[in-house]
Design a protein that fits this description.
The complex is a heterodimer of chains A (537) and B (101). Chain A is built from 22 helices and 2 strands. Chain A is mainly alpha-helical and 537 residues long. Chain A has a two-stranded antiparallel sheet with strand order 1-2. With 101 residues, chain B is mainly α. Chain B has a domain at 76-101. Helices cover 55% and strands 0% of the residues of chain B. Chain B is elongated. The chains are: A mainly alpha (537), B mainly alpha (101). Chains A and B meet through helix 6, helix 8, helix 9, helix 11 and helix 17 of A and helix 1, helix 3 and helix 4 of B.
Amino acid sequence: MRNFIILVITIPLLTAFLLPLLKIFSKKLSNFCIGLNLILINIISFFLYKSILENGNIIYSVGASAPSITAPSGFPIRIILTANALSSFLAMFFTIIASLTFFYSLNTLKEYANLDKFYILYLLLLVGILGFLFVGDFFTLFVFYEISSISTAGLIVFLRNKENFKSTFHYLSIFSIGSLFLLLGIGLLYSQYGFLNMAIISQKIQLSFLDKIALSFIGSALLLKVGVFPFYFWKIEAYKVSPISAIILSILSSLSAIYVMFKIVFYIFGLNIPFIIALTLLSALSILFGNLLALAQKNLKKIIAYLAISELGYIILGISSGFLMQNSKFEFNAIKGGLFHIINDALDIGTLSLIIGVILYIAKIKNSLSYNSVSLQQNEIRGLAHKYPLLSISFLLVILALSGLPPLNGFASKIIIYESIFHLNPALTIIGVLGSILTLAVLIKIFALIFLGAPNRDYQPAPKIAMVVIFIFLSFMILIGLFPMQFTNYFINPSVKALISKPGYKNNIHLQQDNQEQNHSIIHLTLHSKQRYFNYI
Amino acid sequence: MSIVYQPKILLLLFSLIFFIIYLFYLTGEKKYKKDTVQTIAYFSGKTPYQNIKLQNVYWGFFKNFEKLYLFLSKIQRENTNDYVFMFIIWLTFILLTICLI
């Protein structure tokens, strides 16, 4: 079971590099292999989650003689992966979403060339997302940050228009700066403590001035990855030109970055209150400005981007408010609301994106530029409710879910967030409710413009597999909305406990101490290794 | 959540409301003439403007927040230098918050 953690990452990674070979034989064979690979990692991530619930956290040390040996030998850097109830649950959920999105894209992107390259990048981005969830040391964190950034850049440029190249340039420019600051932050920690293992640094950290600078650098780089206000610019540039499936994976990438950010802030820097206050402020601004800007947009994909920013604001608001109310009875609920909203955000924004993808497909908007920038102002698409009643009902359900209206999943998580953050500051609840009202206003306008009125042109039939994927997403939303207590009890509560306690790290240290006994002294070993390393240099 | 929010009861309530609406719908006039004045909504008083488009439904809202929207459009000019500059500015804000508070 311990090996599952590495299998979840290596299987899509190896498949991504096998795809060019498979394409030589047959295009269908390569698609079949991707589907099989995604189903396989779904099964593995399910068993990984089940194993963690039964036996506790898992630590995997890559390249060691045994997976539990986390002490470096020889070269003082070791790739360490850790999994707890939260990270394994998110991995299981994200692989389900990524698999469904793959089947959706098979149906909607079939007319585009170079799809094999698209799927290579798609799998690499999935590797980056899953790797982010399981990182146990800063070196691996930086590697997965880079993998996800570069593969996202490749997905943005996929359609190969002028707009795509321009957006990719913006994206790469911003993320090269972000990566640089992440590396600087990691370097500052390494220079002080001589370790990259998060567990060891969490034990040794002194919260010196340099540590605080490192936290701000690492935190800002991760906030850039999350894409909340005011680090959201890349998101607008990327989403407006990317295919829908790439947008959904990018949303998952942002959600995994939220997990890593809180893991670092809470486990390693021992809950830095000023940083958490700054996060709460930025999340409230995200909710407000995300919705205000979405209201003024005419491009459908930009609207997805701004609504995603606002929903990320709710997640961070819930979790950071929970940390601010530490040791009070509302801490658990606020964090629960935030983590619950990660799932609901992925489902709601994901379904909205899928529906918009189908709208663009059925309206035959194939020439690249208009595919990217359908304008509501020009009234290009109208009266879809007459011909596509199921799509209209699906869109109405998404409106209910995203606006936090009962009885759908968005309400279930937002009500927990509102109730909890009210005890921190009632103004935050007001901002949250205001944000939901603005989301409703944005989506109602889109619905009225696209679905109501008389049809103004011919539309092609809706892609069947894509519609099935939308219904699966909707059924998840309805089920979670109708049975929120059961869902939170089975899936979210163990995740909250995993986030607010530090068993993974204690366990990690414990295992290293076992190792210490076996090897006489871990510190001696490490120092010896370092000495050897520096002598080598 | 357990006391106030009971989604299954709420769903039953919604179903009941929809059923009542359906009953009202059944009592409607079935012999109306299509494509005549009977199907046009009646507005009392002054005739509403016909040239106002649905896209402009939030015109008053945008007019009130014109200055805010002008500011927001200025910082989103699709210019890489602006984006990098904003990143550095907010990184500095976070750095100062962490180091000085």
